[in-house]
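Quiz preparation item.
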């Protein structure tokens, strides 16, 4: 008899948020400014502008360092999760979450990144948060770096370009492992490590204008190398300090199809996809892929590596591969091919796919394709740690009828199940922005992903009241039935 389709027992259903987009309280209880606190909201940008993170000025950095102009910096206020976390976790528990992905704001623990002692108030906040999750039987999945390094390190070293930042990050991580060793088993090192090329400041505190002329790319690759080394060292420490812990890498899965079967399009697509794999390749296989090394050489990019770096990368590879998946795109070598925005990228439009209000092309089957590709390549357990639909929700009589979000998730869950059925090992699924938070790319509040509505507009007006959307009750049923009931 054919085996019936079902998610594995113990499948980790849940949601995901990041400190810089949710917590707010950006300068409370000793927290130092982070790079996210310097990113201002710019009204009326076009969709294409939103495909990249908006440019940063010296003024933005000074505003953050001096604590000016709060209103223009939505990530400083988030949704005040810092003060609302108990209420929010109770709502996640009501939905039946098994896991919540959160990140630790590095500058809450080390305000400048290099302080003599960690900030006890910051450590205590996360201890309380993790205890609250455990009280509700929710497993924390913790990202150590999610677009929120201390601004002081960005200023002093041009972020990850300088090797000293590796030491600072390893120290920060070690403090976290020691403190939370009884509370947290699942860890991610760098969120979307590949995004360093798309938004170097947000990901790695790097401002290209600080590089020597013609050396901006080289600096970005150097910063990336430092993150690879730091990730491996932190993986080593996590395994040593927390026996049985599992550490994952985290990739933006930018699945790309050839726009046509012209061999030129197929080759351009292959290169795009190989580039996307490169980051996980290093963290899973413990070495740079030869084609990437050759490409860097041809482009005149020289990465300074310490003698022991190769050994470190090889010795301390990750236990699982996590990734975000929102959309797919196509690639073409035709100069007039129409490009539309996706997750901080511009890709060639796929005529077969619908798109979100922000232009991201919705492709559930692309998730199954991504799972098959990743599992075939790495043969490591996979964890979908971000997926969701950014949409403008409307409140009518206190209700939010977000069928579009339910349809989106249903289709993505079904494709996940189909991949599991074909043999892919999937640990869990944390939906992105399970409660409305500030958008990473646009700093808008109106780009909502949550099952829980938060009453706040782009300018920060609102009561911050939390409301259950229709999708809240739907996801509750999905989890309760371990995915058997998706109607
Ligand atoms: C991912 C990021 O790339 O996309 C998240 O890891 C982000 O931080 C998510 O919020 C959705 O993007 P956006 O720009 O719509 O918030």
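Solution:
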């Amino acid at each position: 008899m054919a085996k019936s389709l079902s998610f594995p027992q113990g499948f980790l259903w849940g949601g995901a948020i990041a400190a810089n987009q949710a917590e707010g309280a950006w300068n409370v209880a000793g927290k130092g400014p982070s790079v996210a606190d310097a990113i201002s909201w710019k009204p009326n940008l076009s969709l294409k502008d939103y495909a990249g993170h908006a440019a940063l000025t010296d003024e933005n950095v000074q505003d953050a360092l001096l604590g000016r102009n709060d209103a223009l910096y939505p990530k400083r206020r988030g949704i005040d999760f810092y003060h609302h976390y108990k209420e929010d976790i109770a709502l996640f528990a009501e939905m039946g979450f098994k896991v919540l992905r959160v990140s630790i704001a590095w500058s809450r623990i080390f305000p400048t990144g290099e302080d003599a002692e960690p900030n006890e108030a910051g450590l205590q906040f996360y201890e309380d948060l993790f205890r609250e999750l455990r009280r509700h039987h929710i497993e924390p999945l913790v990202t150590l770096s999610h677009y929120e390094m201390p601004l002081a390190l960005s200023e002093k070293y041009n972020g990850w370009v300088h090797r000293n930042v590796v030491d600072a990050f390893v120290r920060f991580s070690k403090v976290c492992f020691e403190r939370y060793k009884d509370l947290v088993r699942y860890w991610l090192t760098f969120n979307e490590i590949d995004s360093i090329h798309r938004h170097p400041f947000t990901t790695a505190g790097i401002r290209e204008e600080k590089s020597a002329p013609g050396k901006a790319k080289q600096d970005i690759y150097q910063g990336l190398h430092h993150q690879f080394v730091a990730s491996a060292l932190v993986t080593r420490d996590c395994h040593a300090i927390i026996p049985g812990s599992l550490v994952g890498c985290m990739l933006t899965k930018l699945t790309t199809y050839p726009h046509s079967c012209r061999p030129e399009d197929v080759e351009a697509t292959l290169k795009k996809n190989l580039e996307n794999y490169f980051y996980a390749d290093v963290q899973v296989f413990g070495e740079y892929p030869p084609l990437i090394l050759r490409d860097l050489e041809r482009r005149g990019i020289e990465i300074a590596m310490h003698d022991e770096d190769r050994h470190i990368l090889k010795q301390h590879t990750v236990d699982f591969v996590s990734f975000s998946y929102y959309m797919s795109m196509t690639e073409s070598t035709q100069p007039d091919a129409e490009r539309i925005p996706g997750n901080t990228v511009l890709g060639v439009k796929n005529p077969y796919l619908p798109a979100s209000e922000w232009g991201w092309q919705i492709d559930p089957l692309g998730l199954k394709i991504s799972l098959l590709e990743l599992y075939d390549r790495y043969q490591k357990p996979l964890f979908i740690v971000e997926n969701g639909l950014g949409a403008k929700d409307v409140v009518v009589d206190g209700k939010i009828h977000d069928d579009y979000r339910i349809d989106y998730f249903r289709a993505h869950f079904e494709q996940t199940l189909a991949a599991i059925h074909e043999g892919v090992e999937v640990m869990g699924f944390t939906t992105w922005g399970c409660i409305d938070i500030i958008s990473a790319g646009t700093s808008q509040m109106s780009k909502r992903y949550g099952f829980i509505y938060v009453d706040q507009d782009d300018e920060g007006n609102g009561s911050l009241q939390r409301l259950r959307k229709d999708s809240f009750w739907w996801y509750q049923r999905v989890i309760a039935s371990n995915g058997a009931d998706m109607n």
